[in-house]
């Protein structure tokens, strides 16, 4: 790695309202993605909505950003980078962002956040790191707790409660006895997830058979092994992999419903998707953090990582038909939305699979006051830090 002092470009921000930022003092923000997904799209849309409503970007610039094109804007520069699910490419786009003078790295997903953090953590003056759609900052070493963290790091965490997800299997079939789980040993969050699923499954009288995959073709053998062990359904903990469509195809062949640990995946073809529901809101909060930092209203060092465990589930009747599975009435009654014939009655789309995907209408001064009040509640006081540090030492 290059010497940190050579890589870091120190940019002094002119702290004025967004509409007044001009010239060479414009901040540069890098949007860094591990790869495209509906989860990322929801959070990304929310951040751009926030930047636009606060006047950092105009309509013409927004149109370019919606196409994921980097801009040298009137008030802000935004650099896009997509790793395309490749670790080497992730390091390339991070270095490119640093070379272009990025003051802030906005990272999407646990994988991209982890790679970015370890790339900049030893810099003398690292860019700020604001992450979102990141479920595993604590288990990957990016932070220890919401306030015990590096001074340059904050973000939002969608908390996945497997206690709410695993029982969906029994809502579908109260007589279910064996479930198969697929995870990746290369992704710590998925290892933790499958261990938690096994614990909860055992408490519910379910036997959880687990198979790991490293590359997409491993799915053929994994699904076959699980089916031969009597699995009546497959559950997928939180992790990112490119074999989504192959897994679905195999589920049709074996007649196995698939429960994903995210509601959004029901729209992508999963039989059931259950888990955190509010990724647009997470993106809006990350956008709030970004804007407040750019305006000098907060210190990232004293801003806690925001955690939320909003839960919902959705079902896909099209997938169930292909698997020759009848969805239970209990699931249909409780679903946030139901996909049938590729659509939902709730107006949820495949690109943005949540019900609320727009900022509430309000005057800018009221929005600013509300946003700053929200961030004030996230202040990491010395008392909170000491309490969390004591809890860590007691573990």
Could you write a compact summary of the structure shown?
The chain is α/β, with parallel strands linked by helices. It has helices at 4-7, 38-53, 59-66, 87-99, 110-120, 162-165, 167-172, 188-203, 218-228, 244-254, 264-268, 279-294, 317-322, 329-334, 364-376, 382-393, and strands at 28-33, 71-72, 77-82, 104-108, 128-132, 153-158, 178-183, 207-212, 234-236, 258-260, 272-276, 306-308, 311-316, 337-339. The protein folds into 2 domains: 4-158 and 279-309 and 375-390, 3-Layer(aba) Sandwich (Rossmann fold); 162-275 and 310-339, 3-Layer(aba) Sandwich (Rossmann fold), CATH 3.40.50.
> How do the helices and strands follow one another from N- to C-terminus?
HEHHEEHEHEEHHEHEHEHEHEHEEHHEHH
What's the Cα radius of gyration? 22 Å
Helix fraction, binned, reads 40-55%
Name of the top-level CATH class of the largest domain? Alpha Beta
What is the terminal-to-terminal distance?
Answer: 34 Å
- Count of domain modules: 2
Name its key features:
395 residues; alpha/beta; Rossmann fold; 2 domains; seven-stranded mixed β-sheet; globular
Write up what this structure looks like.
- The chain is of the alpha/beta class.
- The chain folds into two domains: 4-158 and 279-309 and 375-390, Rossmann fold; 162-275 and 310-339, Response regulator (Rossmann fold), CATH 3.40.50.
- Helices cover 40% and strands 16% of the residues.
- It contains 16 helices and 14 strands.
- It has helices spanning 4-7, 38-53, 59-66, 87-99, 110-120, 162-165, 167-172, 188-203, 218-228, 244-254, 264-268, 279-294, 317-322, 329-334, 364-376, 382-393; strands at residues 28-33, 71-72, 77-82, 104-108, 128-132, 153-158, 178-183, 207-212, 234-236, 258-260, 272-276, 306-308, 311-316, 337-339.
- Strands 2-3-1-4-5-6-12 form a seven-stranded mixed β-sheet, with helices on both faces. Strands 8-7-9-10-11-13-14 form a seven-stranded mixed β-sheet, with helices on both faces.
- Helix 11 links the parallel strand 10 and strand 11.
- Helix 4 (87-99) crosses helix 5 (110-120).
- The longest helix has 16 residues, at 38-53.
